[in-house]
Design a protein that fits this description.
- With about 110 residues, the chain is mostly helical.
- It is built from four helices and two strands, in the order H-H-H-E-H-E.
- A two-stranded antiparallel ribbon has the order 1-2.
């Protein structure tokens, strides 16, 4: 399937895009650089917490040391955060994918 157009934006398109971005910024609809960094840090902490939890659950389930070390999980973002259309104070929708033996029935070990 061929694209509708290979042409870039017109000068008018560029001007209108800049006007829209300025309007959105003036209305406070973009998060600050500090808030963006803070959200990335929180996602990093959450990722580490989940990885540690999966290893503890794996130990508690009696898996061999090798399997415990291999056990892992990954955090995925979705929704407005993943699409990059979130505003200040917005939540971050996350999904944790891990091994089958680490389920929500095991809170702590």
């Amino acid at each position: 399937m061929k694209p509708i157009s290979l042409g870039g934006p017109s000068e008018y398109d560029v001007i209108k895009t800049k006007e829209l971005e300025k309007f959105l910024a003036d209305a406070g609809l973009y998060e600050s650089h500090e808030e963006a960094i803070s959200k990335e840090e929180v996602l990093g902490w959450l990722d580490q917490i989940v990885k540690i939890w999966v290893k503890k659950v794996s130990q508690g389930r009696g898996l061999s040391e090798h399997l415990v070390q291999e056990a892992n999980a990954k955090i995925f973002t979705f929704g407005s955060y993943r699409l990059g259309v979130h505003g200040p104070g917005a939540d971050i929708d996350t999904l944790c994918v891990g091994p089958r033996h680490a389920d929500r029935d095991v809170i702590s070990l």
